[in-house]
Amino acid sequence: GIATLPCIAGDAEPELVRCLPPIPELEADLFLVVREEVKSSAHVRAFAEALAAHVKEQRAQLAGEPG
User: Fold this and answer.
1) Nearest-CA neighbor of 58 among 49, 67, 45?
2) How many CB atoms are located within 10 Å of the residue 7 CB?
3) Which of 1, 7, 45, 55 has its Cα between 20 and 30 A from that of 17?
4) Are the C-beta atoms of 63 and 22 separated by less than 8 Å?
5) CA distance 40 to 43
6) Cβ of 31: how many Cβ atoms within 10 Å?
7) DSSP structural state of residue 39
């Protein structure tokens, strides 16, 4: 069968084969929503910064770029 999967999920499965290139219309921004009263907490900021760094490192994979 055929299914639409995030590239990072499909590419992680060696038995799956891409049928089509990534679909530009399915690209989206990624937002982290944090409650106002905790957004300035050190542990929340640390998590948000670590998550942002991880997403930046994975940007190519998330976008479905080869390699």
Assistant:
1) 67
2) 19
3) 55
4) yes
5) 9
6) 6
7) T
CA-to-CA dists, residue 32 to 3, 54, 60, angstroms: 27, 13, 19
Assess whether pLDDT exceeds 80 at residue 60: yes
Within 10 Å of residue 44's Cβ, how many Cβ atoms?
Answer: 14
Going through the chain in order, the beta strands assigned E by DSSP cover none
Identify whether the C-beta of residue 32 lies closer than 8 Å to the C-beta of residue 48.
yes
How much of the chain, in percent, has pLDDT values that exceed 70?
99
Q: Check pLDDT > 70 for residue 11.
A: yes
